[in-house]
């Protein structure tokens, strides 16, 4: 699990760089059907996109354009740990459990 946490942290720091270099072709993900296992195996770029989506989605309008990296990293750790223990759960279910929409 510690390796997973270190991987998640490195992904978060790489996210800013990797998001700007993503290809322009359209991809659709149904996160309600994506399992935690699929998420964890989807690659750094996809993980970064999903974590960024979750951060914005679960904040709603309350925090506007503020990104608290300490909170972001703490939530990513919780999410990674939860998904590691529950590989068959959907990403949305995991996010609801961790971030409580």
UniProtKB/TrEMBL annotation:
* UniProt entry keywords in alphabetical sequence: Chaperone, Periplasm, Signal
Protein's UniProt keywords contain Chaperone: yes
Q: Mind telling me which Pfam families this protein's record contains?
A: HdeA
What residue range is the signal peptide? Answer: 1-26
Q: What is this protein called?
A: Acid stress chaperone HdeB
Q: Which organism is it from?
A: Bradyrhizobium forestalis
